[in-house]
């Protein structure tokens, strides 16, 4: 089944997730269209085309899209070589809009991080640093394969790499007794580290084969984020639609 059909079915089955699922549909469309732009167009026109595509799909006002272009250009940095500049662009001081703009910048950064990942060799291993081996952002999502091996799935740049099977991927402690678990009906798990109060999502390969998309699995398990955060645990990086803090 195509991912689009899976999402449509999920919106029917889980109406409480309709809004984040609809946003993810737009993210998928944006990323897919940007792949074509990056593949077929000249370097000097890429920024304009990506922001124009972003503005069209997410219905961004002209004034804000112009601000994005000028802010990136004024940074004096190449967003394809330093995509973190997009996440660090100046945002409104109005608290009511701060989180929304952060999510907007996070989603916009996806094609830039993808290009960066493709062109950059891995720096350090995630199991050594507690961060993605490519973009060096914190880890929030992992997958366990049929051989019981665990892999980081970076929600920022899309990198996938193996990491130790048991323990906290943030503070790197590997003591089983220091990890509590929350598990939902899909067998998606949240691993709660008692030492650093970080939580990491994990899912087995069977769940991946059902939904075909690790980031979709992250979204459908949003209720687990709510429970973990209500208990005082922290998600260190956003999910694919830019949501990190819920409660």
Describe the structure.
The protein is of the alpha+beta class. The chain contains eleven helices and six strands. The mean pLDDT is 91. The chain has a six-stranded mixed sheet. The chain has helices at residues 3-13, 18-40, 46-58, 62-74, 84-87, 95-108, 110-119, 126-129, 205-211, 214-220, 222-230; strands at 141-144, 150-153, 160-163, 179-183, 189-193, 199-204.
The whole-angstrom Rg is 18 Å
How many beta strands in the DSSP annotation?
6
Q: Return the domain count.
A: 2
Measured by DSSP, the beta-strand proportion falls in: 5-15%
What structural class results from the helix and strand content? Answer: alpha+beta
Shape: globular
- How many helices? The count is 11
Biggest sheet: strand arrangement: 3-2-1-6-5-4
The helix/strand series, from N terminus to C terminus, equals HHHHHHHHEEEEEEHHH
GO molecular function: ferric iron binding
Protein name: Formate dehydrogenase accessory protein FdhE
Pfam families: FdhE_C
Domain FdhE C-terminal: 182-240
Question: Keyphrases for this structure?
Answer:
2 domains, 247 residues, single chain, 11 helices, FdhE-like fold, six-stranded mixed beta sheet, alpha+beta
What secondary-structure arrangement, pairings included, does this model have?
Blueprint: H1 3-13, H2 18-40, H3 46-58, H4 62-74, H5 84-87, H6 95-108, H7 110-119, H8 126-129, E1 141-144, E2 150-153, E3 160-163, E4 179-183, E5 189-193, E6 199-204, H9 205-211, H10 214-220, H11 222-230
Parallel strand pairs: 1-6
Antiparallel strand pairs: 1-2, 2-3, 4-5, 5-6
Helix pairs in contact: 1-2, 2-3, 3-4
